[in-house]
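Any chance you could type out a protein's amino acid sequence plus the matching C-alpha cells because I've never seen that pairing?

——
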Amino acid sequence: MNIRRLSQYLQTWVRRGLVPVGLAASAVAMPASAETLKVGYSDWPGWVAWQVALEKGWFKEAGLDVTFEWFDYSASMDAFAAGKLDVVGMTNGDTLVTGAGGGKGIMALITDYSSGNDMILAKPGIKSIKDLKGKKVAVEVGLVDHLLLSNALKKAGLKETDVTLVNAKTNELPQVFAAGDVSAIGVWQPVAGQAMKAVPGSRALYKSTDEPGLIYDVMVATPAVAKTRKADLQKLFKVWDRVVAYVQDPKTQPDAVKIMAARSGVSPAEYQTYINGTHLLNVADGKKVYVKGTGFNTIQGSTAFVNKFNVANAVYKKPENVDAYLDYTIYGQ
C-alpha cells in the first residue's frame, strides 16, 4: 500500500478511536524504501546486463527490495507513463518523448551509450546512405533510431523528405524488412541481428559508432522516486557498478554473456557482438557525463540535441525543458 494512502487511513482510524495515536505514528514513519522498487527493462544490452545481478542475488545483498519486469521497449515506456513502474530503461531522447506525452521522469543512472548496436540496415545492392534517396525506410517514428537515420541522412547531404518513412514497431522490423518493399530499416541489437538473418546479404550503412554520445541509455525514475528514494537509487548504483565490473572483466565476462544471451534468446557467441557494440558506463564514468555542456560527451548536450530533433520532426510540438529531466544531485554533483 502507498505510504501516503496508509497515512490517510490511519488518520481516519485515529479520529474514530480505532487505532492508538502512537501506533499510527510509528506505522506512518516507515520509510518509503519499505516499498518494492518496480523496474522495467527491455532487450537492450545495457539493460539486459541487470539480469546478471538478478541471477546472482546482488540486489538482496545490497538490501534493495526490487522487482524487474520484462517488456518490449515501447511497451515499457507506456507502462512507465501509466504509473505502473518506478524506474525504466530508456534512451535519453525517448525520455523526452515519454515526458512530453505526460509520463515525466528523471534520468537517474546512465548505463551506457550505443557504440555500434544501433544501425541503419539496407538490402543488398544499396551501398550508401545516399543510395536511399527516393526509397522507403522503416523505423519506429519518433524513437531513437529515427534520430540515427536523420543524423545519417544529414551527414550524407540528404533531407528526411528525400526518403519515405514507414512507421513500424521495432520488434516487428525484421518482418517488415523481409516482406515489405522497404529498402532499409533503423534498428538496434538484438533485433538488428534478426533482421539481417531475415534478409541475407543486408548490411549496415551507418552505426552509432559514427556518432558516440548521440544515444545515451539511462534508467529513468519517476519524479517522486527521484526525490524521496535517493537511498534506494544509490543502492541501485552500487549494484550497477558490480554488474559493469562483472561484464567487463575478461575472467567473468563469459558467464555474464551466457546469462544475458539466455535472457535475449540468442547464443552467447552472437551476444558477444552486442556487448562489443555497447559502451557500458560504471558510476564514475556516468558521473563525468552527467554534467552540463553542449557536446555529445554530456547528458545535457546530447539531450538538448535530441530535443531539437524531436520538435523539428513534430514528435512533440514545443521544446521540452531538458534540465527538468535531470537531477545533478543524484550523482553527487
